[in-house]
Write a structure and sequence with these properties.
There is one protein chain. The chain is an alpha/beta fold. It has one domain: Ribonuclease H-like superfamily/Ribonuclease H (Nucleotidyltransferase, domain 5). Helix content is about 30%, strand content about 25%. It has 5 helices and 7 strands; from the N terminus they run H-E-E-E-E-E-H-E-H-H-E-H. The protein has helices at about 1-10, 80-95, 110, 115-120, 140; strands at about 20-30, 35-40, 45, 55-60, 70-75, 100-105, 125-130. The chain has a 5-stranded mixed β-sheet with strand order 5-4-1-6-7, with helices on one face. Helix 2 (about 80-95) runs parallel beside helix 4. The model is unreliable at about 135-145 (pLDDT under 50).
């Protein structure tokens, strides 16, 4: 699938200097949800998150120059919250750098909803077709942040 998409980008002559790569990721406030430790006292594996500190969701965008845009997502990342973030903050921020850009998204449900697609089309922004389940292509996973 990835090879087919890469070939289509070559055929379509996508200008990757205009692509803004995006991703969102939850960060726990007191460590990873998956970190375990060995307890000498209990002679077993225990969860290393005793305080359940909660988490925050961060949305990020990266341009071809390496410029990074980070935003804290308020509440859950549903279509309405995502579109509010897009229209009130992200699109104006990106358009202040360049009038034309192509938005890459990771196929999360809030990215593919009819509401989100219509919001992006109304803002006259092109969306880059992206293969689902591509962790190796995400900048946060690449740097070990997800």
């Amino acid at each position: 699938m990835r090879v087919q998409i890469a070939r289509s980008y070559i055929t379509e002559r996508i200008d990757f200097h205009k692509v803004v790569f995006t991703h969102e990721c939850p960060f726990t406030l007191d460590g990873s949800n998956n970190v375990k430790t060995w307890s000498k006292k209990n002679q077993g594996i225990i969860n290393q998150r005793p305080y359940k500190g909660g988490s925050i969701m961060i949305w990020s965008a990266m341009t071809h120059t390496g410029e990074l845009l980070l935003r804290k997502v308020e509440g859950s990342l549903n279509s309405e919250n995502f579109c509010n973030l897009l229209t009130k903050d992200i699109i104006p921020s990106l358009k202040s750098e360049t009038e034309y850009f192509i938005l890459q998204q990771n196929n999360a449900p809030c990215h593919n909803s009819k509401y989100t697609i219509s919001t992006i089309k109304a803002a006259v922004i092109e969306i880059l077709n992206w293969p689902p389940h591509s962790p190796d292509l995400s900048q946060l996973r690449r740097f070990g942040l997800h």
